[in-house]
Predict the 3D structure of the following.
Amino acid sequence: MIPAGQEGRVVNKKLLMAAILVAGARPMAADPAETAKHLDAAWFRAELRSEAAHWRAAALRPNGFFAVSLDRQWRPVGSEDGTLVSQNRQIFVMGAGYELTHDPAYLDAMKRGADFLLEHFRDKEQGLFFSCVSPEGTVIDRSKDSYGLAFTILGLSHAARITKDKRYAAAALETWAQMKEHLREPSGFFRPKTDRGYTRTTSENTQNPMMHLFEALLALHDATGSPAVLRDAQEHADRIFSRLFQEQEGRLPEFYDADWKPAAAEKGGHIELGHQFEWAFLLSHAVEKGLPNRYLAIAGRLLDYGMKVAYDAEEGGIFTQGDYDNRAVRGPKGWWEQCEFLRTLMHWAVVRGRTDLWPAFDKSLAFAKRNLMDAEFGGWYYSYDPQNPTIRNGKGSEWQAGYHVTGMYLEGLRLSK
């Protein structure tokens, strides 16, 4: 059960009963013929190959820096300064390209990217990593950013697992240790942003870095096999869902005040709908790795909430934001939300036996192919706006950088084998 004595609301009886029902459950054996009707392994393989090739050709610089600000035709646009987020997301994409193709050019790109990270982003005097550097490695932003640091653990963990280079595993473990030392607060959560000396620079909080830190710890465990890291991941998830999860609605708000109370709607408080699905995937995947089966109850609630509020049954795909009254805010649909939605639906259909999700998956994949995938130049657009359906925006930024798309393709390949 979720540890007692933690600050915040205790999980209610309804959620506890749901946890009991799934306790001891195992992933249901998927029917290969049924899975094949919905998941085309050849398509996922071809699209991942194309995605990785475009990013390597367009973003990689000889010194290992990844320049990810790109227009629709994959040409550089605007500032080329890079962040921890963009550098590590590209390390992840290059690793996926190598594991798919076994082309040493991707392995070289991953290693050069990780080496540039360690050489130029790392704060060798005060610890952790700077937030932003120039293509030449000059530090632009000396702040410490929990979101970017979560991706640093993720990128280094994938580099360590794939290359077997112990330097990357050691750096990832050190990053996690230093985050606990310098950024963790008495609440157990992490300061979202600080100056170089670890003084908090914002009074606001968000669950987003906490989510990606959980993801990063799972990857760090894959790379190191450390039982301590897996225990840390479990404690981190328990803290989040004992304090922040709104059990009655089955949702996790996005923004919080300094005391980790949900931000008021008039101050920007809302539900980030894509994150409900992202959490539903990560928690289920964590159970596959051996974490408690009780997480399936929470993940199932998040999934069902997302399907009720976010899913567009008319056109397919999901909307971006929801309000506190459980209504979706209709508007442009972002690429990353659709990728996380698709990944979660196929995962739950195959691994957890939720075959009722296949129609929504099929409809939404068709929506994405029609409106978000660039048939002429390859890759995904930032968003689709039904009010301006002919707008075709760019391919790259520190936030895009192939991470969500690649993650979705990788899960499709895993499930369709």
